[in-house]
Amino acid sequence: SYYLKESKGSRRWLLFLEGGGYCFNRESCASRYGTSRRLMSSGEWPATRVGTGILSSQPEENPHWWNANMVFIPYCSSDVWSGASSKSEKSEYAFMGALIIQEVIKELVGKGLGTAKVLLLAGSSAGGTGVLLNVDRVAEQLEEMGYQGIQVRGLADSGWFLDNKQYRRTDCIDTITCAPTEAIRRGIRYWNGVVPERCKLQFKEGEEWNCFFGYKIYPTLRCPVFVVQWLFDEAQLTVDNVHLTGQPVQEGQWLYIQNLGRELRNTLKDVTASFAPACLSHEIITRNHWTDIQVKGTSLPRALHCWDRSLHESNKNGKAPLKGCPIHLIDSCPWPHCNPSCPTIRDQFTGQEMNVIQFLMHMGFDVQKMAQQQGLEPSKLLGMLSSGN
């Protein structure tokens, strides 16, 4: 099932893959079916939906894509959009993420997608990883159907995970405690998950799980992909067992969080088009405040517009990047919310908004000590924090 908003005058199509985690064995899927049924069955889906963020048809909320044909594909396959298995004796669940995308494409071709100039396959969280896993396959499918003229691109939001060491190692009992590598390893077998051929060839048989991690699959992709990733992604911290719930953060956790930002920044340095603010958050492109976040003075819609232009220009004449229109935007400041345009943080218990300094204090950030390490006066450090330098 999918939702479609047609825009007859436009030859641009945006297909959005919804996110929502995954389950990887009988127990975790049974529990998911109990608590999040809409992520496993279309039974309770509404008849219509309102698009927000990049799916909005309001130019104020969506300056560059408001006029596109929009398709929202809800997530009911629990397999990071990778599965290709029907219900069987072995499993009472069907995992068909990869096949759902193929079927939607087949059907849309008759509804105008066939005359498209650009197809942007976008997704958030598990949908963002789904973009990395499926964008080349969508391009191949359209070519095989005889639509060579459509430029297929990807936009992966909050789906660029690291297979790093957890802050505290825990056994793989459920989706929260299970380290991502282990969960995906089990998941691929359970879902009969498929990964792109070019990525698969980089790894030994049985090691296909590597292709679920952005920095490993990205170099193998043919289609251009824009990567949007918070440097301190809440879903990443959760699977790494850093739980920021009201208690001040211990020094070990604080160092771990800063190191996570550094590692993530490193994996993005060779990604041509990227937007990575130093915020603690998860998902952005369908949020109505997505236009407010800036990296080095450039907003995300602007960066996507620059990327569109650069792909258009390079198709014509392979020119250098456009002046004043950056597409590689990564914050260089070292801790969560050192970027003043980050989304508002609220105290999880009181619901009160916090400014950066309150947030850092709440996280157990020691201003005196930090200032000493940086060789600064504490008041100067506070000034820099609140202005976001």
TrEMBL record:
It comes from the Eukaryota. GO terms for molecular function: palmitoleyl hydrolase activity. It holds the Pfam family PAE. One of its GO terms (biological process) is negative regulation of canonical Wnt signaling pathway. Belongs to the pectinacetylesterase family. Notum subfamily. PANTHER family: NOTUM-RELATED (PTHR21562), PALMITOLEOYL-PROTEIN CARBOXYLESTERASE NOTUM (PTHR21562:SF7). This is NOTUM carboxylesterase.
